Amino acid sequence: MIRLSQLKLEVSEQAASLVSDFLLGLGSLGVAEDIRGEGLREVSAYFPMETDIAMVISSLKEYSELVKQNFPGVTISPVTVQYIDRSGWEVWKSVLKKIRVGKRVIIRPPWEEHIALGNEIVIEINPSLAFGTGHHETTRLCIEAIEDNIQTNDIQTMLDVGCGSGILSISALKLGVRDVAGFDTDPIAIQESRKNAEKNGVLDKINFFCGYIQSAKGHYDLIVANVYIESILLMKEEFISRLSKGGKLIVSGIQYKRRDEAVRGLKEAGLLLKNEISDRDWVALEFVTN
């Protein structure tokens, strides 16, 4: 019976991805994020039994202090540890099932099978990064918006801002976008994007790079940014300068209660709200240049 160490802690929403990525960098086999009330995420990380858990906890404690120094107001709870056998691991797997997104896209984890019917597009995503598996509302909203735009507009080029697992880039390419680029400031995210692209046979067709939007050259018919609202507003001028004539900007990662703040900030930069879709407490907004 395979046994694993499970580390669990509660983290403010804005720091959850940072903590998840850090735990992956320490050798976690997988990380899951669950909503635990407004503004809070429960992060669960799984390690082989031979891992020095005391070292992991010590490193995480130091990193948590650094995160709290750089992001005032962020809370990170103490870590709890429990040991689970393979059956417990299988319970976690049972939570992440294949899912249909939009009209054509089926996203599945490696342990789920799906034979494409008709014009379905099947994408395999390794859930080592919980955000970007297709199960989060904002990921689904972005894929739906990408699919709708491809159906109604001539979308040949796309920039994926904060690509994470690469799921939006892979989906766009398989839906018909010819030229796709994606970037993230986190090198672990770029590794995951490339691994997922390779699994789906498109590694040589997507330009993933680690860096900032300033490194993205040229113009794009579609820019998609599924990131925090603060980052969206900071990059608004960069978005505009990289949109092709008639290009579209899709932004998500925005809770509905902050929808007006996002709309106001992007309108002030000269963008026009064209469309919006929502799922539970989350919203995706589509803009065009004025």
Could you walk me through the main structural features you see in this protein, from its secondary elements to its overall organization?
The chain has 290 residues and is of the alpha/beta class. It has two domains: 92 residues, Alpha-Beta Plaits (2-Layer Sandwich); 154 residues, Rossmann fold (3-Layer(aba) Sandwich). The chain is 34% helix and 33% strand. It has nine helices and 14 strands. It has a seven-stranded mixed beta sheet with strand order 10-9-8-11-12-14-13, with helices on both faces. Strands 2-3-1-4 form a four-stranded antiparallel beta sheet. It has a three-stranded mixed beta sheet with strand order 5-6-7. β9, α6 and β10 form a beta-alpha-beta unit. α1 packs antiparallel against α2 and α4 packs parallel to α5. The longest helix has 18 residues. It is globular, with a radius of gyration of 19 Å. The mean pLDDT is 89.
